[in-house]
Amino acid sequence: MAAAQGRFSDGADGTDSAKDSSVPLPFRRAVDGLKKARLRQGIEIDPTKPPQRLAPHAYALEAAVVDGDEDLADGRLILLHDPAGHDAWQGAFRLVTLVRAELEPEMAVDPLLPEVCWSWLTGALDARGLTYGEASGTVTMAASHYFGGLGERRPATQIEIRASWTPREGVGGVPDTAAHLSAWCELLCQIAGLPPVGPTETVTGVVSLPQRRGPHHPQG
After folding, report:
1. Strand 57-67 relative to strand 70-86: parallel, antiparallel, unpaired?
2. Which of 183, 185, 194, 209 has the fewest Cβ atoms within 10 angstroms?
3. Quick check: 164 and 96 in contact, CB under 8 A?
Protein backbone atom coordinates (compact mmCIF):
# COMPACT_ATOMS: atom_id res chain seq x y z
CA MET A 1 0.00 0.00 0.00
CA ALA A 2 1.49 3.32 -1.01
CA ALA A 3 0.60 6.75 0.27
CA ALA A 4 -0.39 9.38 -2.28
CA GLN A 5 -0.55 6.88 -5.13
CA GLY A 6 -3.27 4.83 -6.73
CA ARG A 7 -5.77 4.40 -9.52
CA PHE A 8 -9.49 4.18 -10.05
CA SER A 9 -10.90 0.65 -9.92
CA ASP A 10 -13.40 -0.42 -12.56
CA GLY A 11 -12.66 -4.08 -13.09
CA ALA A 12 -9.83 -5.91 -14.77
CA ASP A 13 -10.35 -5.03 -18.41
CA GLY A 14 -8.21 -1.89 -18.26
CA THR A 15 -10.64 0.29 -20.20
CA ASP A 16 -10.92 3.98 -19.40
CA SER A 17 -14.49 4.70 -18.29
CA ALA A 18 -13.81 8.06 -16.66
CA LYS A 19 -15.69 9.79 -19.47
CA ASP A 20 -18.39 7.12 -19.75
CA SER A 21 -21.71 8.92 -20.00
CA SER A 22 -23.32 6.19 -17.88
CA VAL A 23 -21.37 7.42 -14.85
CA PRO A 24 -23.36 10.31 -13.33
CA LEU A 25 -21.56 13.62 -12.98
CA PRO A 26 -22.32 13.94 -9.21
CA PHE A 27 -20.67 10.58 -8.60
CA ARG A 28 -17.62 11.47 -10.66
CA ARG A 29 -17.28 14.74 -8.74
CA ALA A 30 -17.71 12.93 -5.43
CA VAL A 31 -14.90 10.54 -6.33
CA ASP A 32 -12.76 13.45 -7.50
CA GLY A 33 -13.35 15.06 -4.11
CA LEU A 34 -11.57 12.16 -2.44
CA LYS A 35 -8.37 13.23 -4.20
CA LYS A 36 -8.43 16.54 -2.32
CA ALA A 37 -8.48 15.06 1.17
CA ARG A 38 -5.57 15.98 3.43
CA LEU A 39 -4.54 13.33 5.88
CA ARG A 40 -2.48 12.90 9.01
CA GLN A 41 1.07 11.66 8.73
CA GLY A 42 1.35 7.88 8.92
CA ILE A 43 -1.73 7.02 6.85
CA GLU A 44 -1.25 4.98 3.70
CA ILE A 45 -4.20 4.81 1.33
CA ASP A 46 -5.02 3.19 -2.01
CA PRO A 47 -8.08 2.58 -4.16
CA THR A 48 -9.30 -1.01 -4.13
CA LYS A 49 -11.93 -2.99 -5.99
CA PRO A 50 -15.38 -2.05 -4.65
CA PRO A 51 -18.04 -4.62 -3.79
CA GLN A 52 -20.55 -5.61 -6.45
CA ARG A 53 -24.27 -4.92 -6.52
CA LEU A 54 -24.54 -2.77 -3.41
CA ALA A 55 -25.46 0.21 -5.58
CA PRO A 56 -25.43 1.19 -9.26
CA HIS A 57 -22.11 3.01 -8.69
CA ALA A 58 -19.40 2.32 -6.12
CA TYR A 59 -15.85 3.35 -5.31
CA ALA A 60 -13.65 2.00 -2.51
CA LEU A 61 -10.48 2.94 -0.64
CA GLU A 62 -8.38 0.90 1.75
CA ALA A 63 -6.08 2.51 4.29
CA ALA A 64 -3.73 1.67 7.12
CA VAL A 65 -2.10 3.58 9.95
CA VAL A 66 1.55 2.54 9.85
CA ASP A 67 4.47 2.84 12.24
CA GLY A 68 7.58 1.61 10.49
CA ASP A 69 6.74 -1.86 9.19
CA GLU A 70 3.82 -2.30 11.56
CA ASP A 71 0.16 -1.67 10.70
CA LEU A 72 -1.53 -0.23 13.79
CA ALA A 73 -5.02 -0.22 12.24
CA ASP A 74 -6.56 -0.78 8.85
CA GLY A 75 -9.90 -0.32 7.16
CA ARG A 76 -11.94 0.22 4.05
CA LEU A 77 -14.24 3.09 3.06
CA ILE A 78 -16.81 2.60 0.29
CA LEU A 79 -18.71 5.36 -1.49
CA LEU A 80 -22.06 4.21 -2.92
CA HIS A 81 -24.31 6.16 -5.27
CA ASP A 82 -27.82 5.52 -6.52
CA PRO A 83 -28.99 8.39 -8.77
CA ALA A 84 -32.61 7.47 -8.10
CA GLY A 85 -32.11 7.76 -4.36
CA HIS A 86 -32.49 5.02 -1.78
CA ASP A 87 -35.25 4.88 0.81
CA ALA A 88 -33.06 3.32 3.49
CA TRP A 89 -30.29 5.87 2.90
CA GLN A 90 -32.61 8.89 2.70
CA GLY A 91 -30.34 10.19 -0.04
CA ALA A 92 -28.45 9.34 -3.21
CA PHE A 93 -25.07 8.67 -1.55
CA ARG A 94 -23.97 6.36 1.22
CA LEU A 95 -20.62 5.83 2.95
CA VAL A 96 -19.87 2.38 4.35
CA THR A 97 -16.84 1.47 6.42
CA LEU A 98 -15.00 -1.32 8.18
CA VAL A 99 -12.19 -0.39 10.60
CA ARG A 100 -10.20 -2.77 12.80
CA ALA A 101 -7.23 -2.81 15.15
CA GLU A 102 -5.69 -4.87 17.93
CA LEU A 103 -6.27 -3.41 21.37
CA GLU A 104 -3.93 -2.94 24.26
CA PRO A 105 -4.97 -5.15 27.22
CA GLU A 106 -5.94 -2.20 29.41
CA MET A 107 -8.28 -0.88 26.71
CA ALA A 108 -9.89 -4.26 26.06
CA VAL A 109 -11.33 -4.48 29.58
CA ASP A 110 -13.03 -1.07 29.43
CA PRO A 111 -16.81 -1.72 29.36
CA LEU A 112 -17.43 1.69 27.80
CA LEU A 113 -15.07 1.09 24.87
CA PRO A 114 -17.79 0.33 22.27
CA GLU A 115 -19.56 3.63 23.03
CA VAL A 116 -16.25 5.47 22.95
CA CYS A 117 -15.33 3.99 19.56
CA TRP A 118 -18.66 5.01 18.09
CA SER A 119 -18.18 8.51 19.47
CA TRP A 120 -14.82 8.71 17.66
CA LEU A 121 -16.66 8.42 14.36
CA THR A 122 -19.50 10.82 15.11
CA GLY A 123 -17.11 13.22 16.85
CA ALA A 124 -14.79 13.33 13.83
CA LEU A 125 -17.73 14.09 11.54
CA ASP A 126 -19.16 16.72 13.88
CA ALA A 127 -15.76 18.40 14.37
CA ARG A 128 -15.66 19.08 10.64
CA GLY A 129 -19.16 20.55 10.61
CA LEU A 130 -20.47 17.69 8.47
CA THR A 131 -24.17 17.00 8.31
CA TYR A 132 -25.15 13.38 7.88
CA GLY A 133 -28.12 11.11 8.43
CA GLU A 134 -29.25 7.53 8.98
CA ALA A 135 -26.03 6.61 10.79
CA SER A 136 -25.85 3.01 11.96
CA GLY A 137 -23.23 0.46 12.84
CA THR A 138 -21.74 -2.11 15.18
CA VAL A 139 -18.67 -2.27 17.41
CA THR A 140 -17.39 -5.80 17.96
CA MET A 141 -14.57 -7.10 20.16
CA ALA A 142 -13.10 -10.59 19.73
CA ALA A 143 -10.62 -12.10 22.21
CA SER A 144 -7.98 -14.65 21.23
CA HIS A 145 -6.20 -16.96 23.71
CA TYR A 146 -3.26 -19.08 22.61
CA PHE A 147 -2.39 -22.65 23.63
CA GLY A 148 0.11 -25.40 22.93
CA GLY A 149 2.89 -24.27 20.63
CA LEU A 150 1.41 -20.76 20.67
CA GLY A 151 1.07 -20.63 24.44
CA GLU A 152 3.82 -18.06 24.88
CA ARG A 153 1.78 -15.44 23.06
CA ARG A 154 -0.15 -13.08 25.25
CA PRO A 155 -3.95 -12.90 24.82
CA ALA A 156 -5.06 -10.44 22.16
CA THR A 157 -8.28 -8.56 21.52
CA GLN A 158 -9.28 -7.16 18.16
CA ILE A 159 -11.89 -4.46 17.78
CA GLU A 160 -13.91 -3.98 14.62
CA ILE A 161 -16.16 -1.07 13.71
CA ARG A 162 -18.69 -1.42 10.91
CA ALA A 163 -20.67 1.70 10.12
CA SER A 164 -22.56 3.53 7.42
CA TRP A 165 -24.03 6.99 7.07
CA THR A 166 -25.61 9.27 4.47
CA PRO A 167 -23.54 12.40 3.73
CA ARG A 168 -25.49 15.58 3.08
CA GLU A 169 -25.41 16.53 -0.57
CA GLY A 170 -24.13 20.00 -1.41
CA VAL A 171 -23.93 22.03 -4.59
CA GLY A 172 -24.86 19.96 -7.62
CA GLY A 173 -25.96 17.10 -5.41
CA VAL A 174 -22.35 16.30 -4.44
CA PRO A 175 -21.32 15.60 -0.81
CA ASP A 176 -18.05 16.90 0.64
CA THR A 177 -16.28 13.57 0.29
CA ALA A 178 -12.86 15.06 1.09
CA ALA A 179 -14.06 16.10 4.54
CA HIS A 180 -15.77 12.76 5.13
CA LEU A 181 -12.57 10.92 4.18
CA SER A 182 -10.59 13.13 6.54
CA ALA A 183 -13.02 12.34 9.36
CA TRP A 184 -12.84 8.63 8.60
CA CYS A 185 -9.05 8.70 8.71
CA GLU A 186 -9.25 10.41 12.11
CA LEU A 187 -11.33 7.46 13.34
CA LEU A 188 -8.68 5.11 11.94
CA CYS A 189 -5.94 6.97 13.81
CA GLN A 190 -7.83 6.99 17.09
CA ILE A 191 -8.55 3.26 16.98
CA ALA A 192 -4.82 2.81 16.26
CA GLY A 193 -4.09 4.55 19.56
CA LEU A 194 -2.93 7.91 18.23
CA PRO A 195 -4.08 11.04 20.07
CA PRO A 196 -6.91 13.00 18.42
CA VAL A 197 -6.22 16.21 16.55
CA GLY A 198 -8.45 19.02 15.36
CA PRO A 199 -9.61 19.28 11.73
CA THR A 200 -7.17 22.10 11.00
CA GLU A 201 -4.27 20.04 12.34
CA THR A 202 -4.74 17.07 10.02
CA VAL A 203 -3.17 18.68 6.97
CA THR A 204 0.15 16.86 6.67
CA GLY A 205 -0.17 15.14 3.31
CA VAL A 206 -2.40 15.12 0.27
CA VAL A 207 -4.06 12.06 -1.20
CA SER A 208 -3.28 11.98 -4.91
CA LEU A 209 -5.20 9.46 -6.98
CA PRO A 210 -4.48 10.10 -10.67
CA GLN A 211 -7.51 9.44 -12.84
CA ARG A 212 -6.27 6.58 -14.97
CA ARG A 213 -9.51 4.61 -14.79
CA GLY A 214 -13.10 5.50 -14.13
CA PRO A 215 -15.18 4.77 -11.04
CA HIS A 216 -16.68 1.32 -10.89
CA HIS A 217 -20.30 1.08 -12.02
CA PRO A 218 -21.59 -2.49 -11.72
CA GLN A 219 -24.13 -3.73 -14.18
CA GLY A 220 -27.28 -5.57 -13.27
Report:
1. antiparallel
2. 194
3. yes
